Amino acid sequence: MNLDRFTSALADLETRGRRRRLVPRRIDGRFLVDDDGRRLLNFGSNDYLGFALASTPPSPSTHNTNIAGSTASALVCGWTQQHHRLSESIAVLESTESAVLFPSGFAACSGTIATLAAPGDLILSDALNHASLIDGCRLSKADVVVYPHGDVAFVQQQLQQTARPGQRVWIVTDSIFSMDGDIAPLADLVEVAQRYDADLIVDEAHGTGLFGQAGSGVVEMLGLKNEIAVRIGTLSKAVGAQGGFVAGPQAVIDYLVNHCRPLIFSTSLSAGAVAAAQRSIDQIRSDPQPRVHVRRLSRRLREAIGQQCGPDEPAAEVPIIIHVVGSDSAATQASSELRQAGFYVPAIRPPTVPAGTARLRISLSAIHTDEDVDHLASALSRLTKA
């Protein structure tokens, strides 16, 4: 094999300070133990409710605790009673007719968009959507228009001027944007979608478990469950397990089961992942305190570092706090200085975010304390004054 193409690309990334590497680390409660043994307060995890750190792992199966994997794809023999129960629990949480599980949130997003949208359709996709949604749009072979982030007026203009008579139109958006921590204007998108007979698909990757009276996400919090038929979610963030799901009308779920390649041709979720997700979904439905706590911490940190948010602004309680630094080197240096102070706060650089907007991304968890957040706020204050 000729490796010149790959080594040249890696050398270019190295020169620009953007080469990424896998670093072995150990998780110890709310601490991350770095490769040199340093214990850092971990503000880089997406384990928003702390469920991934449950002290007693759930039994993989009530029928056979020796099962590690699922043995096959869902349609062959990998869909067990436990998989079915979890999908039913998710449908109840989401107030939909049905739900289906995927091997990852990425597969759920990319597979769903690529399967439901067809050549000749039109997709309007937010510019800051997750890579999995972007890939799904590309794979669908539909016409795709990327609209400026959160710009509902632009969406309406496209529906008026670009959409052809009779053309099926999809609007695709995250509910919470992972690298900015803001919330999509879902109510306005619903109003425009209904006016022009478009279908809205929402990825609740960073909303599931955190918002709404039942904990299903931003769609529920905004009272839009009846208006947004198809919702995608992950089991790897607030749920603290692994995998993804799609919830929606029975006909949509059945269509995915019969046509969605990432679902049909992937081995089903492992028994352990299903058991862990089931426990977390049950807890989300029964105990609101973890999500109440982490949302309160989010507001506390924002107030401490001077991010202005109104008392009724939902984005103030998103447990993703962003501090844009600018250059790649400045963000890396800021992350390094926080590490020296005992905090793990990752620097996010291009291509994940646009050039010139490298940033620190702070993720809060229900296992954090008020003192943890206050200490981080003090460290950030010293950093910005330096």
TrEMBL record:
In what residue span(s) does the Aminotransferase class I/classII large domain sit? 40-380
Indicate yes or no for the key word Acyltransferase: yes
Pathway of action: Cofactor biosynthesis; biotin biosynthesis
| Keyword match Transferase | yes
Q: Which reaction does it catalyse?
A: 6-carboxyhexanoyl-[ACP] + L-alanine + H(+) = (8S)-8-amino-7-oxononanoate + holo-[ACP] + CO2
Q: Which GO terms describe its molecular function?
A: 8-amino-7-oxononanoate synthase activity; pyridoxal phosphate binding
Question: What are its GO biological-process terms?
Answer: biotin biosynthetic process
EC class: transferase
Q: Which residues form the signal peptide?
A: none
Alphabetic keyword roster = Acyltransferase, Biotin biosynthesis, Pyridoxal phosphate, Transferase
PROSITE patterns, per database record: AA_TRANSFER_CLASS_2
Under SUPFAM superfamilies, the record lists: PLP-dependent transferases (SSF53383)
Which coenzyme or cofactor does it need? pyridoxal 5'-phosphate
Q: What is its EC number?
A: 2.3.1.47
CDD domains associated with the record: KBL_like
Q: Which family does it belong to?
A: Belongs to the class-II pyridoxal-phosphate-dependent aminotransferase family. BioF subfamily.
Complexes and interactors: Homodimer.
Q: What is this protein called?
A: 8-amino-7-oxononanoate synthase
Organism annotation: Crateriforma conspicua
Primary gene name: bioF
